[in-house]
Structures are given as C-alpha cells and as structure tokens.
Amino acid sequence: MKYRYLGRTGLKVSELCLGTLMLGSWGKNNYESSELIIKKALNKGINYFDTADSYSNGESEKILGESLKKLKKRDNVIIATKVNTPMGADPNSRGSSRRWITKAVEDSLKRLQTDWIDIYQLHRPDPFTDIEETLSVLNDLVKQGKIRYFGTSTFPVSSLVEAQHITKDFNVISPSIEQPPYSILAREIENEVLPICSKYKIGVAVWSPLAGGWLSGKIKNAADVITDRTKYWGNRYDMSQAKNQKKLEIVLRLNKICEEFNISLNHLAIAFTLNHPAVTSAIIGPRTLDHLDTLVDAVNLNLSVEILDMIDTVVEAGITVSEDDKGYISPAILNPSLRRR
After folding, report:
1. Active-site choice (31, 48, 55, 149)
2. Is this model's pTM higher than 0.70 or not?
3. What angle separates helix 242-261 from helix 265-275, to the nearest 10 degrees?
4. 120 an active-site residue?
5. What is the DSSP code (8-state) at residue 239?
6. What is the CA 247 to chain-centroid distance, rounded?
7. pLDDT tens digits, residue range 83-127?
8. What is residue 173's three-state secondary structure?
9. Backbone Cα Rg of the chain
10. At what angle are helices 131-143 and 98-112 packed, to 10 degrees?
C-alpha cells in the first residue's frame, strides 16, 4: 500500500480508503463477515476507514467500532464519519444545525466506541442552515477534542470557497477535506472542485471510483447491468434510458482499452482517479473479501500518457455522463417553487 498526505493536515492516509457502506444490512453482511473485511483491509495496509451515521442506520459505525476495538487497532487508523442525512422521523434529526451536530457526534462516538473522530464530514450541503453556524460548532468540537479535523462531502465549489473565506475572516479552523464523486463516467469535478481543493490544500477522498459498479469489469452487455442495486439507486441502472445506454457504450469501449493493455477495468478506473494530482485517496466499498482482493492492487497500476489520452477520447475531461452520478443536485433545481414566481 502507498500513502499520501491528506491536504494540509499532516495525516498520511492510504491511497485506498475502505468505505463501509456495504458493511451491515445494506450489503447483507453480518458482524463476523464485516470484521473479516476490515481485518483484511488492515493487513493490506489500509489505514483509512470511511463510514457515516446513516449507513444501515448506524450499524456500519457500530461494526467498524467493534471490529477495531477487538483487533486493537484504533490508534493505528484514521476514522472518517459523516453527519447530515436523516436519522429518524424527527425533523430535527438531520441537517447541519448546531443542535443536531452536537447530538449526532455523541451518537457516532458511542457507536464507534472511541473518544475521538479523526475526520468529521458534512454528508451533503444544508441550504437551510447558515454555514457560519455549522463551521462554529465544528470548530467547537475540535477544541473539545471530540474531532480532530472536519470536512465536506459532495459540496459545490461555491460552498467550498465560501467556507475558506469565512474561516479566514473569523480566524478559525477551515475544512480540511472534500469527498466528491469521481470516476471516468463522472468527471465534472475536474472543472472547478479539484483545482480549488489544490489551491486551498484541501485533501480529496473520492467516492464511487467504479461508478456504482459500472466500471467493475463485470459488465459485458446490457444483461449484466441488471443488479439488485436498483433498489437503492434506481435510474442509474435502467437500460431503457438513453443515458444508461450511453454508459454501456462507454464501458464497452473502455473494455477494449483494457484488453489492448492487458489490465482490468476496475484497476484502470481506480488508478485513473488516483492519477489526478489533487486526489489523495479513492474510497472502495467492497461487499465481500473477494471484492476487496480484486481492488487493492490497483494502487500498483501506473497509467501511461497514452492510456490517459485514450480515456479522454472516450469521456472528455470535465464531463459527467449522467446527472444521476453527480451525488447532489441543489434544491433550487429540484424544487420548482424555488425557481418560479
């Protein structure tokens, strides 16, 4: 395993981060099978683990905390978790308000069985809470020792810049990491997000480098796209839609590149994201030990300029093939009342 500095934090994290979305009921994993995945990840040199309070309604955090305690590895790893998405029917059990974050962090600490969280991230933007309030409570949590660093996930570039300026004006700690979606099929962040992260020395851990399974190497024709992922991701796999037919066409072209250079598509996809100079780590979310085994060697693949140029001819730089892969669409677009008189 190789390691990189996470932005300006001084932390060295593995180039692959173990995402725990599939650990727990969402991935049909129990505690025992999940612990085996975590143990193998540690043995492979992965020291960076990403979770969220909402993953399997807190179960993922519990599994990660219990496993690290049992393996006595808490002091050797970087734990990142997230807050913002709904955690129950209570309308205030979500978002980025001081009230909710103050409670949510205590809940996460308890589930993770730890005294501190290394990286605490806002899972998505919260347009209904002043960013000053959110940054204030996150700074308080750092001072209290409950979190070491904080950051964002899938934030628009305008919010990233706003946060940097606000914290500079008030002389307080600024976000240290952004976690955006990034893959060969979703390259929009190359336009502004990644350059801005480089400018402000913000670490970047990208999620879904395999584009939700599209770049896993398992798709050879339309029939291979039909998966149980449809339950959670819906439109991303509906082959009656032109955008997904376009994805399949791209995957088939990428398969030919892989055949020409005798490399696997999943390795190509992960190596592609790690090749960008602004990217610190790529988050992988294996559901089984076999999945993990097929992914970890991607860090050893160095892509030539020739291969990178060939990828650019398949999907242009800065282009995201489908809106479904952006990870966040502003309420101003989703809610017609916010754009009509």
Report:
1. 55
2. yes
3. 90
4. no
5. T
6. 21
7. 999 999 999 999 999 999 999 999 999 999 999 999 999 999 999
8. coil
9. 19
10. 40
